[in-house]
Amino acid sequence: MADQVKTGAITVEEVEALNAKGITREIVDGKWVMPDEETRMAGKQHGAIAAKLNYFLVAYVMENPVGTVYADNTSYVLESDAHGVELIRVPDVSFVRTERIDRENPNSSHYLAPDIAIEVISPSETGTEIRRKLKDYLRTGTRQVWQVYPDTKEIMVWLADGTVNTYEIGQTIPGGELLPGFELDVTRIFE
Hints:
Layout: H1 12-20, E1 27-28, E2 31-32, H2 44-63, E3 67-71, E4 76-81, E5 84-89, E6 93-97, E7 116-120, H3 127-139, E8 144-149, E9 154-159, E10 164-168, E11 172-174, E12 183-185, H4 186-190
Parallel strand pairs: 7-8
Antiparallel strand pairs: 1-2, 3-6, 4-5, 6-7, 8-9, 9-10, 11-12
């Protein structure tokens, strides 16, 4: 018997059923993004950088309870309607301010854009993919997108108005209004 191929829109119920099994996938233009064998798993450097970013942000919110930091595999439904889900992104690290978090459904996806989305850029990602993610986040309400480039040891912080600041070894990323008093020494991320 041949495998059945589902056609039509991806429903919220299908997304939530996968989440319940611990499976997260991005959806772009209403289609599942299926990673190929080369991009399926992040390398050691990618994982170590994401873990450090997560650590410093979690340490900050433990002392300053302004929101919640989420690790990878946390999905954000950025576009959906009665016909189905059009766009889900899964950042490597993310942050959502306390007042925006839906506390009634702790096991579901977020149905909002994160306040901060952090993407550790992998060598296999194309410029088109990187730019598309950036635009998706900013267009749907993310206030800061951090693009972390391990090879050049830079972190580009894009703001909602489209401005960008690039931080290198020896520089500090300020928390601004989202993370008052937070400062991140870029050197600590890449050491």
